[in-house]
Amino acid sequence: MTNKTIDLICQRRSIRSYKSTPLTSEQINEIIQAAQSAPSSNFLQCATIIRITDSEKRSELAHYSGDQSYIVQAPEFWVFCADFNRHFQIDATIPLEKAEQLLVGCIDTTLMAQNAVIAAQSLGLGTVYIGGLRNNIAKVTELLALPKYVLPLFGLCIGYPDQNPDIKPRLPKQLVFFENHYQPINHQLLAQYDSQMRDYYGHREINQKTNGWSDKIAETISKGQRDFVLNYLHKQGWITK
C-alpha cells in the first residue's frame, strides 16, 4: 500500500523539454524552503544554491555541460554547491582540508537538492540534474566567482514539463537491498533486468538503444572519469590532507 507522497516520488522522471511558463516567486520560495529542510550533518548547513538568471551565463553553462540546450530553455536553472567557505568566513582557523569535509559537503548538498526536486514535482513541475557541469568545473568556478572551499556539484533545471517520458525501470530490490551483510550479484535477476532495459530503450520515443544495463557499465564509467577533478579539488582547498 502506498500514499500520495510515495506515489509522487516513484513517478519522478528526468524532464528535458520545458514550457516557457515562469515559476512564481511563491513557488521558488516553497522549493527553497523544502530544500533547506533536508537533514544536515551536525547542522553545518554546508550547501549553497546559485540561481542563474543571466542569459549569457546560462548559455556558457550549457556549453560547458556538453551543449545541453534545456539548461537555456528551462525557466529556472540552479547550481548546487558544497560550501564550507561560509564557515571559513566565520572562523579561518577551522581545518577544512580533510576528506571528511568533502563527503559531508557532497552529502548535505545532494540531500538538499533532492528535497528541491520532490518539492518541485509536488507543484506540477519537472526537473533534470546536470552533472555535466563538472566537465568544465574550473570554468564554471570562474564564471560563478566561486571562492575557496566551494564546489559546484551539479545543476538543476526546473520548469513545467513539455514532455511525458516513460519512467526508467530500476534495478530489482534484491540487487540493492541486503540484510546484515553484502551479497554478490544474482546474475539471473541481472539478466532479467537487462532484458527489461532493452525493452525500455527499444520502445521509448527518443534516443533508442539496443543494449541492456550491465553491458554499458564499463563504457559509462570510463567516459565519465574527469581525471582533472582531483587537481581542481586541491586548488579549491578540498582533500589536501
Describe what is shown at a glance.
This is Oxygen-insensitive NADPH nitroreductase. The protein is 42% helix and 12% strand.
Describe the protein's architecture and organization.
InterPro entries: Flavin_OxRdtase_Frp, Nitroreductase, Nitroreductase-like. Residues 11-160 form the Nitroreductase domain. One of its GO terms (molecular function) is oxidoreductase activity. It comes from Gilliamella apis. Keywords: Flavoprotein, FMN, NADP, Oxidoreductase. The chain is of the alpha+beta class and 241 residues long. It folds into two domains: 4-167, NADH Oxidase, CATH 3.40.109.10; 169-228, no CATH class. It is 42% helix and 12% strand. The protein is built from ten helices and four strands, in the order H-H-E-H-H-E-H-H-E-H-E-H-H-H. A four-stranded antiparallel β-sheet has the order 1-2-4-3, with helices on both faces. Helix 2 crosses helix 6 (99-122).
Features:
241 residues, alpha+beta, NADH Oxidase, 2 domains, four-stranded antiparallel sheet, 10 helices, 4 strands, 12% strand, globular
List the helices and strands and how they pair.
Layout (H helix, E strand, L loop, with lengths): L3 H7 L14 H12 L10 E5 L3 H10 L5 H4 L2 E8 L1 H6 L8 H24 L3 E5 L6 H7 L6 E10 L27 H17 L13 H7 L5 H7 L6
Antiparallel strand pairs: 1-2, 2-4, 3-4
Helix pairs in contact: 2-6
The outline comes out as globular
Strand content: 5-15%
Number of strands: 4
Structural class by helix and strand composition = alpha+beta
The CATH class of the largest domain turns out to be Alpha Beta
Q: What is the strand arrangement across the widest sheet?
A: 1-2-4-3
Count of helices?
A: 10
Quaternary assembly: single chain
**In terms of per-residue confidence, which ranges show pLDDT below 50 for 5 or more consecutive residues?**
none
The major β-sheet equals:
4 strands, antiparallel
Classified in CATH, the superfamily of the largest domain is NADH Oxidase
Radius of gyration: 19 Å
> What is the overall pLDDT average?
95
From the coordinates shown, what is the CATH architecture of the largest domain?
A: 3-Layer(aba) Sandwich
Query: How far apart, in Å, are the first and last alpha carbons?
Result: 48 Å
Number of domains: 2
Helix % is: 40-55%
Which series of helices and strands comes N to C? HHEHHEHHEHEHHH
Might you state the CATH topology name of the largest domain?
A: NADH Oxidase
Domain Nitroreductase: 11-160
Organism: Gilliamella apis
Family: Belongs to the flavin oxidoreductase frp family.
Protein name: Oxygen-insensitive NADPH nitroreductase
